[in-house]
Amino acid sequence: MEANDGPSVDTPLDVLVTDRPLSQWNITHTPHDVGYVLLLSPDGRLSGESTAGVDGCVSDMLSAQRIVEAIMNAAQTRRPAAARPHLSQRELQVLISIADGLTHAQIARRLGISPHTVDTYVKRIRSKVGGGNKAHLVKVSFAMA
């Protein structure tokens, strides 16, 4: 696995534990496939880079037992798949980029696609999550897991 690659698992995940934001991944899972995303951070707080799609955070300074307890708790509180719209890998990348505050042109450059294609993905995302403006899409990105 390359340093910038995300998880490469063929089965849906109950809990995904990561030490970096989803926006830094080469995403292979969508929120439909993951029940709960738990971020490990030095201070145990959700801050800094985009936390879109992250459900909870725990300090990586805790004991292994405490981290396992947090994972077990996350598995019990995960959101049902029916509550999450199914977005394609590329739609999720676009949604995370919107939550990062990027313009359509910046997203296009980041993903190596045209701004028109970004517009198309945004229209598809809006149709799947119930429309809304950019603020609504950012809210949706934080609520998804």
From TrEMBL:
Keywords: DNA-binding, Transcription, Transcription regulation
Domain of life the protein comes from: Bacteria
Alphabetical list of SUPFAM superfamilies matching this protein: C-terminal effector domain of the bipartite response regulators (SSF46894)
A Pfam family the protein falls into: GerE
Record field: transmembrane: none
Domain spans labelled HTH luxR-type: 80-145
Record protein name field: Response regulator transcription factor
Natural source organism: Sphaerimonospora cavernae
